[in-house]
Amino acid sequence: MRGLSWLLSCAVIVGVLAAAPHIAASQVGNGKNCRLEQQCHWENFKKICVWVKVCR
Description:
Layout: H1 2-25, E1 34-43, E2 46-55
Antiparallel strand pairs: 1-2
């Protein structure tokens, strides 16, 4: 049981460290905060959603 919890904790740490470059890459050097947002609209009774990059 102790080995399983150690393995699980290592997997969580690796996952957090793997996500860190993605979070840092979303920051633009000129002070803007950029991220992907989902924008949806209705077209012919169907909901169409697209992901757009928004910088503020």
